[in-house]
Records
---
Amino acid sequence: MSINLFFRQTGKPKIPQYNTLNIQLKGYDFAVLENYQKLVHKIAEGMDVEVEDGWAVPPQHLKVQRFKPESTIVDTEYTMTVYERNVQVIHLPSTVGSILFEVLQTALPEGVSMTVHEHKEEHEETRYIPDAELLELKSQLEELRGPNVKKK
């Protein structure tokens, strides 16, 4: 009875929503990852999910070494690059969220991994490449200031 009264008062049922979520995509093939990010964006908008933002993170370069059996001698060495893309969604109803994630998981290409997590400020910082010149100027400024001496 109370549910019907609530429905009549508001005109629509109240469905819980997720906080701002990041759909994080990682893979070794740049072209596949870029195309999948476009697909994620398109599927989300097709399901009336509000996409707030999408961005790339600087790639990680990994050095992988394979050793000869039972020795410490390097047999082969590989350099691998891991690319990362993010799609941020907001106001995602909980009833649509599980369906969206299931569809995205089903369409996930081979070699691409997907994680979904709540957006935090530290995720915002990782998307920017540090400016070497700016960092050098900051260190020079610190050197000019000298040691910090506190007065009592």
Note: The first strand starts at residue 21 and ends at 27.
---
Amino acid sequence: MISLYILENAVVGKSRRGWKVAMIVFARITLVCVSLLVLLLSPLAANAVPLGSIGPQVHSDIVKVQTLCDYRGCFGFGPRQTYRPPTYRPPGYQPPVYYRPRATGTPNLIYQPPTTTSVPPPVRPATRAPTLSRQHVQWCRGKYRSYDPTTNRYRTFRGGSLVCYSPYR
């Protein structure tokens, strides 16, 4: 009913474009109606025919049990749930035997370091620090408060140190 109304209004100009738009609208409305119909009737169809086994049913004493093993251990799911820790070993389990290869020759029981024949480097004679004249030290102390006569340096305001040069040096 609604789709016919849309079709009549779209084809007023009787142009090709009007017919195309009308057909697209009609196709979409039809698709929505069919989808709703399938959605509403699917639960009824599922309950109409019960699914059963075709062949004769055989009863046996076999119980299907599923077991899941991972790093946490083995978990059994069935009528009776079970758990085995990961280090579980069945009764009578023997780990494999590993054999170490024998050593070749006799063991060396006493450590003997290798002999060295290297010559130590020659010893340098101690050099004396140049002595500063007394006049140089007095001149540098008078000019710089932070002067150190052992290193002949003074501290700057920026935190560094500089060598003191005097006219007596």
Note: Residues 146 and 157 are 10 Å apart (CA to CA).
